[in-house]
Amino acid sequence: MRTSHFAATTALLALAVAACGASPAGKDGPSGTFEITNDTPPAKGPVDSVTWSLYAEPQSLDYVYAFDYPPNTVLANVCEQLMRITPDMKVKPGLASAARSPDPKRWVYTIRSGVRFHDGSTLTADDVVASLRRHMDPKVGSYWVSVYRNVDRIEKTGPTEVTVHLKKSDQLFNAEMGTSAGTVESAAFLSKEGYGTPDVGVNCTGPFSFGSWQKGQSITLKKFAGYWDTSLAPKANTIKNVFISDPAARVNALLAGEVDGGYLLPSSGFPKLRTAANGTLYFGPNTTTVSVIPTNLKGTLGDVKVRKALSMALDRDGIIKAAAGGVATPAKAPGATGAWGIAPEAAKEYYAKLPALNRDVAGSKKLVEEADATGKKIVMATSTLSPEIGVIANAVQAAGQAIGLRVELKAVAPEAYTALFSDPKAREGIDLVMTVWYDSTPDPLEFYGILTTGDFANYGGYSNPEYDALVDEASAQADPAARAATVAKLQEIAVRDMVWIPLYEVPHTLFLNKRLTGAPTGIAQLVFPWGAPLGSAG
Fold first, then answer.
1. Partner of 82 for a Cys bridge, out of 88, 142, 182, 336, CB 3.0 to 4.6 A?
2. CATH code of the domain covering residue 415
3. Boundaries of domain holding 436
4. Pairwise CA distance, residues 440 & 526, whole Å
5. pTM (2 decimals)?
6. 182, 167 Cβ separation under 8 angstroms
7. In a domain? residue 55
8. Around Cβ 304, how many Cβ atoms within 10 Å?
9. By three-state DSSP, how is residue 138 classified?
10. What is the pLDDT of residues 341-377, one digit of tens each?
């Protein structure tokens, strides 16, 4: 769903980055207080099986198309990356035992020895080269292609060494090697017809191996006895991921103990899950902001005054109550505050300087009049894919009409909603879409970099030479503090030009049956093997 890379981040939905084990931090939403819990207690022992709920069935388990919650939740336990992003949002060595940048145009990775794929074959530099190069093949159509926009070539430079040659400095690239963009698969297995499908599956190096995929029902993973990282040796023998698309049915399955847990839970179920006798609802660190994206800057929304007017007319507190059950905080920028792990304290200062997005209907109406946009049409996509989409679309329509804009809602089938973020043709005739956008790395440049001219995820076609130059500047800054300061300038421009219209930030959610514990609570579970530490609570 974000995809600097492509936003399947859009898809569905539901703050602060802190170290594991730290004290919970209180957050105030329009409907009350909720606490951020940075981790669950360590498991006390093994369990035979775990049943896990996903809100949808993955379309594929091919890592190049893994940019949404369901496939990444599965693959996080099965496949691994060159780097590893930990639950406390730190970038550490993964399948690469070391990474270095001897000059601004090279990243050199030493491949870890003693690692085996699930079929027993040994991890080699050739596997790494083949896996990374797939993202650059236009015939493959990787959702992560933007990560490789500055890559010139990738080559094996030693028996256990791979070098990535860059066209220009790219400091974010190494962190992205902790996401699906850095996943390593067996080169031999990649050549199999139907790779990533239910019939073929995948062959990676993670703590769990692909077991079976019953179409429309579940994906079962098996403990991999030959896993290289003993600190993350799995405590469960199997994890069965079941697909439950109906929000109410998913909540009921958790309350009845039919499934043991799940991430990204429907806000409509929060009241019941918070008081459940058989488990605990956790709110964890997140890097997610819910926003409305202007996808057509050649139409009515091409005038920044109209974009600002629509933003000013929105009742964000009301939207949070209706769409997020009150468990959220209003956003002032499209990049989440929790996505500034490289400089969290400085980020608070940068964010505080941004203008408050207060509701001002009268002022909004005046801006619309100044733009000579009164009565002009805006088309927004809506869908039954999740309740939040419809709630937000209706709120935008009401806000627009209150200030003289004619907002029409266009219903999009659930299976077609994600296509709005991958296929430009699917966006034709649509001016606005709602998205839930998350960053996978602790670097805010991951989000703000996508608003450069021509980027795959720059859906509205925003183009600003000043902005592009600052992205290049940030990409070349190895010092995290300096890079964060430059990204702060990008944040100011994005807010000034209202490239995206931010709505609110949400915590990551996790429900665990009381018999289990050990799973991380935060969004890092999309790239970290969350199932490995999951075990018995008693």
1. 182
2. 3.10.105.10
3. 288-505
4. 8
5. 0.90
6. no
7. no
8. 16
9. coil
10. 999 999 999 999 999 999 999 999 999 999 999 999 9
